[in-house]
Write a structure and sequence with these properties.
Region (Disordered): 177-203
CATH architecture of the domain at 73-200: 2-Layer Sandwich
InterPro entries: Spore_lipoprot_YhcN/YlaJ-like (IPR019076)
Pfam families: Spore_YhcN_YlaJ
Structural class: mainly alpha
Distance between the termini: 66 Å
Protein name: Sporulation protein
Order of helices and strands: HHEEHEHHH
Strand content: 5-15%
Radius of gyration: 25 Å
Strand order of the largest sheet: 1-2-3
Biased composition (Low complexity): 181-192
Oligomer: single chain
Number of helices: 6
Helix content: 40-55%
């Protein structure tokens, strides 16, 4: 009889824990769904600062065909503009992020245009994937011009030509220092053809 009573007590405790676990799981599921719906609302996303970690060891099954992780270009453009605006002598900035380029127009009171360009460019390079190229300009009217391209996407006809022509116009302004012997000011390698655009088409 004593054993039966203990078993009943244990069953009640476990059922209570189970209820708490289900309730907790429901909250986590609800929270997860909220994150998906509000992925563009940084202020409401409580997991925005979470780290990402994955460990692979020798002998683990290798997954093939992994897609390139989704990159929220709107958030990235917002982050870059905010960071650039905190630089000395930068008064206005507009940033466009494509699948492989960051295009930044800005206004500066720094008389050393090349130094300002280098600061702006390196700020962007500090947060984007390494395959990205960064182009900057302080030419008058270029912030508004870059802004006009925000409605374009990878499905736009001749998008590569359109962006390339904008880049050529931006490169009339100082671009800062060269990265190194093998890369120019914008992070392009000598004779480079960037394969990422084809892989990122439509994403």
């Amino acid at each position: 009889m004593k054993k039966l009573g203990m078993l009943l007590c244990l069953a009640i405790v476990l059922s209570g824990c189970g209820g708490d676990d289900q309730k907790k799981m429901g909250q986590e599921y609800k929270f997860s769904r909220t994150n998906v719906k509000d992925e563009n609302r940084i202020g409401n996303n409580k997991n925005y600062g979470d780290f990402g970690y994955m460990r692979h060891m020798s002998g683990d099954k290798v997954k093939t065909g992994n897609a390139v992780p989704y990159l929220n270009r709107q958030k990235l453009a917002d982050m870059i503009s905010d960071m650039v605006l905190q630089l000395p002598d930068i008064k206005d900035v507009g940033t466009l992020v494509t699948d492989e380029e960051v295009l930044i127009g800005y206004k500066t009171t720094n008389k050393d245009r090349n130094a300002a360009a280098d600061q702006v460019k390196m700020t962007a390079f500090s947060v984007v994937p390494r395959y990205y190229h960064v182009y900057v300009t302080d030419e008058k009217g270029m912030i508004n011009k870059i802004e006009q391209y925000q409605a374009l996407n990878n499905d736009t006809e001749d998008i590569e030509g359109i962006i390339d022509r904008l880049i050529q116009e931006m490169k009339k302004a100082p671009q800062g220092k060269k990265w190194n012997y093998g890369e120019n000011e914008n992070g392009e390698m000598n004779g480079e053809t960037n394969p990422m655009r084809g892989e990122m088409e439509g994403k």
